[in-house]
Amino acid sequence: MKIGILQTGKVPPALLAENGEYPEMFERLLAGQGFDFESWPVVDNVLPDSPEAADGWLIPGSRHGVYEDHPWLPPLEAFIREIVAAGRPLVGSCFGHQVIAQALGGHVEKYQGGWSVGPKVYDFPDGPKTLHAWHQDQVITPPEGAQTVASNDFCAHAALLYPGKAYTVQPHPEFPDSFTAALIDTRGRGVVPDALLDAARARIGTAIDRSDIAHQIGHFFKTRSLS
Fold it and tell me: Is the pTM for the entire model greater than 0.90?
């Protein structure tokens, strides 16, 4: 099964050699589940010709906001709607979670409660899971028909299931501890309050349920369901 990855952001240059770009991080996360991958740098105004270019689609994170004025955003939202109309399974993480919601009629905004950074616990139907967060923007109102399948006290719509169509999560299952720690040092200071960064740093090393979400994503691509 071929998964097309729509790259909407770039890894900070200082972290690129060790981690690769975001599509490569997802390729490592989903390794061993029988997928082939191809990525398109949407952030550089490069989109696939059609949803039929891949069997399933994935949109990872970005430092950009879905409500910002970027020339590649309207075409991306249109392509998201084409993917859904074509019946190809779609997965999103962080920015991907948000832009899919916005493209399908939901509302995203910069959350007044501030930032969520580092290992955070989310309540999923099969129990709590700890994943790395790095966001201030949130889905405030999900699109019609979307089901909230994970949340915590900070993020009410941390995962959304669009039955038979899409599955999206606000946290970053592709982030290992080392990447979050490096983000704290290279991108966080001066942007995220120091107290939040220090608390996130103190939680590095907490067991992260990356493999659980990796298998959820793989199962959704293959069956278009979480069960």
Answer: yes
